[in-house]
């Protein structure tokens, strides 16, 4: 007999181990290849989960960086914020706009009066 | 050109009642060898005692008249392989462990290897399952 059955590794187990190491499932049928596939699938799942965690961490870091930048900008540039149109200016602009619309006939007398009253109230 | 000495092989565990294969089982294996579609590398028997112990029987232990088929690689199924294959064998039953080389796939395997291809998945479907599936699901 060319091969002894005892005292050596089995071929099926060796094929399964080889496949796991090489990352390729070899020609093994039945539950061995199923086990391999499950193992490969599980390791893929794990890798995907790790990648997702990494992505989440990166996203979080990016969001934090944006927030920091915004906070810095807000602190560094209080002047433009203060330079925003004041309530009075805003009202004048709207009144002017209403007057223009009225003079162009887009707003009727009643509509103009109502809008002006609302704006001034 | 790379030509493998052997093509892919498959292990089968074929369960039957009793502690020795009947003539019909042996005849089926003989026919398989004669057909030449596969190369029967190894054939060995295992039986599970009512207590659950597995005992391995060589072909020569089961055939009295010396009419055993010639085996290319007798002994290829190692003890570990046999124990793995008969995990599902019920106490009081026996199994023929058949190791066949798929001759049709031998040249194919060589060409795939040369081309850098790798078989990454493979699933065998037992004939009774195939036929039952088709009779239920085919038009």
Helical fraction of chain A? over 70%
**Chain-averaged pLDDT of chain B:** 88
The number of E-state strands of chain B comes to 4
The low-pLDDT segments of chain B are: none
Nearest-integer average pLDDT of chain A: 71
Question: Shape of chain B, please?
Answer: globular
N-end to C-end Cα span of chain B: 45 Å
Rg of chain B: 17 Å
List the helices and strands and how they pair.
The complex is a heterodimer of chains A (121) and B (139).
Chain A: H1 11-22, H2 31-76, H3 78-82, H4 87-103, H5 109-120
Helix pairs in contact in A: 1-2, 4-5
Chain B: E1 9-17, H1 23-35, E2 38-48, E3 54-58, H2 59-62, H3 79-85, E4 93-102, H4 106-114, H5 127-137
Antiparallel strand pairs in B: 1-4, 2-3, 2-4
Walk me through this protein's architecture.
The complex is a heterodimer of chains A (121) and B (139). Chain A has 121 residues and is an all-alpha fold. Helices cover 76% and strands 0% of the residues of chain A. Chain B has 139 residues and is of the alpha+beta class. Chain B has five helices and four strands. The longest helix of chain B is centred in the first third of the chain and has 13 residues, at 23-35. The mean pLDDT of chain B is 88.
